């Protein structure tokens, strides 16, 4: 997540920097550093923020399609995927180790490269998070 996405997320949630810091369990100084681009947003903070955005965003509510249905995953793939195991097909992007495009995702950074181009993720997120992050 780049600094512009962090700022846009805070504004989308209608939070001050101080409120955002409290929501994410970080210091005000850390929130300010992320917004200024002095510090990179750590993966655990990005993940937390994306979860909050997904739960607050209007799209994707109601009857949610499961990722394994949307991607037509074979039984063998589903058997090794934590999203299937825990029945979190609409939150597949949130779960580490999911089997997307035939391979387990190795790291959060690599996973988000895949997710940011996936219809499941895009249906849950505000439009400013759809494209891959730039530094």
Instruction: Summarize the main sheet.
Output: 2 strands, antiparallel
What class would the helix/strand composition place it in?
mainly alpha
Record the strand order, biggest sheet. Answer: 1-2
The shape, in one word, is elongated
Low-confidence stretches: 131-135
Question: What is the straight-line distance between the termini?
Answer: 8 Å
As a percent range, the share of strand residues is under 5%
- Summed over residues and divided by their number, the pLDDT gives a mean of 84
Helix content: 40-55%
- In DSSP terms (H or I, runs of 4 or more residues), the helix count works out at 9
Question: How many runs of DSSP E, i.e. beta strands?
Answer: 2
H/E element order: HHHHHHHEEHH
Rg is: 15 Å
Provide the number of structural domains. 2
Description:
This protein is mainly α and 135 residues long. The chain folds into two domains: 1-56, lambda repressor-like DNA-binding domains (434 Repressor (Amino-terminal Domain)); 63-135, no CATH class. It is 50% helix and 3% strand. The chain is built from nine helices and two strands; from the N terminus they run H-H-H-H-H-H-H-E-E-H-H. The protein has helices at residues 3-12, 17-24, 28-36, 43-56, 67-70, 75-79, 82-85, 108-115, 119-124, and strands at 99-100, 103-104. Strands 1-2 form a two-stranded antiparallel sheet. Helix 2 (17-24) packs across helix 3.
